[in-house]
Amino acid sequence: MTYTATTAAARQSIEPHWDGIEAENIARMRLQNRFRSGLDIARYTAAIMRRDMAAYDADPAQYTQSLGCWHGFIAQQKMISIKKHFGTTKGRYLYLSGWMIAALRSEFGPLPDQSMHEKTSVPALIEELYTFLRQADARELGGLFRQLDEARKAGDAVNTHRLLHKIDDYQTHVVPIIADIDAGFGNAEATYLLAKKMIEAGACAIQIENQVSDEKQCGHQDGKVTVPHEDFLAKIRAVRYAFMELGVDEGIIVARTDSLGAGLTKQIAFTRTKGDIGDQYNSFLDCEDVDAATLGHGDVLVSRDGKLMRPKRLPSNLYQFRAGTGEDRCVLDCITSLQNGADLLWIETEKPHIGQIGGMVSRIREVIPNAKLVYNNSPSFNWTLNFRQQVFDAWTAEGRDLTAYDRAKLMSVDYDSTELAAEADERIRTFQRDAAAQAGIFHHLITLPTYHTAALSTDNLAKEYFGEQGMLGYVKGVQRQEIRQGIACVKHQNMAGSDMGDDHKDYFAGEAALKAGGAHNTMNQFAA
After folding, report:
1. Per the entry, which co-factors are needed (predicted)?
2. What is the residue range of 484's domain?
3. Residue 215: closest CA among 228, 207, 201, 225
4. pLDDT in tens, 55-68
5. Domains held by the chain: number
6. Residue 502 lies in a domain
7. pTM for this predicted structure
8. Is 425 annotated as a binding residue?
């Protein structure tokens, strides 16, 4: 609805009931608060993701991206930056990382990524992220409304028309969030209940992994334990039911497999018939032939093609998969997930290698032609070393002279200005584009980038401020850069909502309003 139509609707609702209530003020407040609930957000953003997925199917150059955010303010500043630099939020999402919740948002204090943090902190962060994004809308629209008032006061019809058009075409900061539910924090019922809370907070896309919930590990740590497919599929169905119950019919489920790096399982899958999904899962178990004479006390046996086999069981009571079966298990995981309610895949890998990812996706697409991935461009990878080694190996295969390089030491600064380093950096630069085209990756994310940026920027400030630079360390390294680069947050009172509060005071009290944004507000030192 246009600004004019919204104002007219508001006028109709208040007349002739109340004096002192202005229809145009109501219209402005409604436009500044477009989303009345988290479910409104979930439905709106799910539709965005569905359109983006269809666009990617038609053209892999239309891949999408996100950065992980551990606080609403970080998410807000990210989307403000994207709108400022690119003029649109199209194709840019947010990622909610369970790793960062564990490390930064748990009441227990910093925790490893092992599902030990409070499950309620996940929907709480979703709600916080959207609270800050909605505030970004209200702040930016409030600025446009002030400009509109000035244009009208000046009798500038052209600028008035331009601003009305800009308000009508306003693009919200609210974008899809892909939210990490870990391994579901319990059984399928627990997964369903938590998924509902996440969706009610605004999540349109929920990512769930096939690890044992009470043994869950970070995707880039050792000791990962997977569950049989039927256990995982029950949780996928639980999430789908949560979406459908709440009327978010286009909700997205991202099924993550950790099988590539998981060599253990807690259970032998139940099998009904030869070749069923349980039998396929068990076929990857590392087993040895046995006969009755060699049975040990308490041994567990499985029958395979008429033979008794003893799965290798560890003192932890976990069973071991055969070495080298990780890719085959990943492919089976992905196919069964897509056949049972999932929309997108996530294959957790140990390195960013397009050939490895693309090889698995090609096998999956033999069964599910439009299969596509969400991929973790993880800070756990040493991107510099990985890609320099990939270039080294490629050049070795080409027969090039590499005597000037030591493959094991390619991270060294001594190589930074070399041809090999330049080629590696170019491959890193184009990795997302190339992987989207060659490996079926629809969405690229970095799980915990803002964890690292916060640490790096704080280190730089502390080094300068507490050292010889003193206050110049802050002014030169932070404030001056904010001013030069047009960072809106340099006016921190405005960013925190001071001007919006003044607008409301004006609505509520008129000339009697005691406003903060007068001539003596020090934020005026930063006027554009």
Report:
1. Mg(2+)
2. 457-512
3. 225
4. 999 999 999 999 99
5. 1
6. yes
7. 0.93
8. no
